[in-house]
Design a protein that fits this description.
This protein is about 35% helix and about 15% strand. The chain is α/β, with parallel strands linked by helices. The strands form two sheets. Strands 5-4-1-6-7 form a five-stranded mixed sheet. A two-stranded antiparallel ribbon has the order 2-3. Helix 2 runs parallel beside helix 3. The chain is globular and about 65 Å long. One of its GO terms (molecular function) is nucleic acid binding. It comes from Rudanella paleaurantiibacter. Pfam families: DDE_3.
Length: about 180
């Protein structure tokens, strides 16, 4: 329903979530010869970048970079930027999204025509911004970017800045599939 309202131009629809970037790359599995253990160095302390992204399916992206949790301040700033239509922000059920600080702001945000929509628990597949974070981590960042914290931060911000031009994700199937499902019901 929300996608239909957005496609019809009645609302601005954003999918939001945070992501964590560290110099510790994610290695889910690997292969090695029997009786020849392969050792990978692990960082015990590492810096962390936790940006909050608000993504529209037309590849419009707003990012609030932070190295700490900051959901209320970011959403308050976002709504104050002025929007020509009511804004709906889709979020998962993370405790940071459902905390008392967020609930305390709901009435103020709704007065400014910004509404939060929470996805069902355990359904990251329903939030398209997860696709963006996956593409950044596993397609667009290269091994060389992990050599230093400054190099990694620079690469992340360069990708974010170029998203919508150089880096794009095609969400047309997602849009048309949902519209067709809604119309055929």
């Amino acid at each position: 329903m929300l996608l239909t309202l957005w496609v019809c131009g009645l609302i601005e629809l954003y999918f939001a979530d945070e992501v964590g970037f560290t110099q510790q790359p994610y290695v889910p599995y690997g292969w090695q010869k029997k009786h020849h253990p392969l050792l990978l160095p692990a960082r015990t302390t590492t810096k962390r970048l936790n940006p909050l992204g608000l993504l529209r399916l037309d590849n419009h992206l707003t990012v609030y970079p932070s190295e700490k949790a900051f959901i209320v301040d970011s959403l308050t700033h976002f709504v104050q930027q002025g929007h020509p239509k009511p804004v709906t922000i889709v979020l998962d059920n993370s405790p940071i999204h459902r905390c008392q600080l967020v609930y305390n702001q709901l009435a103020s945000w709704e007065e400014q025509d910004m509404y939060l929509f929470f996805l069902p628990a355990y359904s990251p597949h329903l939030n398209p911004i997860e696709i963006l974070w996956r593409f950044i981590k596993y397609r667009w960042l290269k091994k060389v970017h992990y050599l230093s914290w400054s190099r990694l931060r620079k690469a992340i911000f360069a990708i974010i800045k170029s998203f919508g031009q150089e880096y794009r994700i095609d969400f047309t199937d997602l849009q048309s599939k949902n519209i067709l499902q809604f119309n055929s019901a």
